[in-house]
Structures are given as structure tokens and as C-alpha cells.
Amino acid sequence: MNFPGALIGFVVGGAAGFLLTETVGAFFAFVLDRALDVDGAPVLLAAFIAVPVLSALLGAAAGARLKNRG
User: Where does the chain cross the membrane (predicted)?
Assistant: First the structure.
């Protein structure tokens, strides 16, 4: 396993997951005019936590694998 590739993939994947959750939140707020309330919905809160973490882990796996190829 290549550590620098995994680290870069982890950071980029986490940033992409955070950007995805923020984009969904902005879409609901500005386009649908409905704010997402994570205090009232624990499933929504779990999704907003899990998406960046899972995409960071997927990015680390992809970064380690692609770095070894080149």
C-alpha cells in the first residue's frame, strides 16, 4: 500500500463528500426553499456524517490503488 497516494485520496475524497453534502443542503435551501433540520431527523444527521467519511475511505482506497499503477 502506498501511503502518500492513500493520504491524498483520503483528503480529496473527504473534501468531495463534504462538498456533496453541502450541495444537497444548498439545493434544498435555495431551490426547494426548505431547510434541512438535522436535529429532528437522526437518519439525516447520520447521512451527513457518513457521506464524507465513506467518500474519504473510498478516495483513500482509490488513491492507493492508482498510485501503485503509475
Answer: 7-31, 43-64
H or E stretch including 13? helix 3-26
pLDDT range class, residue 35, cuts 50, 70, 90: confident
If we measure between CA atoms, which residue out of 55, 35, 32 comes closest to residue 44?
A: 35
Give CA–CA dist 20/24, Å, rounded: 6
pTM of the model: 0.82
Binning the chain into helix, strand and coil, the percentages to the nearest 5 are 80, 0, 20
Q: What does the domain layout of the chain look like in residue ranges?
A: 3-69
Name the pLDDT band for 39 (thresholds 50, 70, 90).
Answer: confident
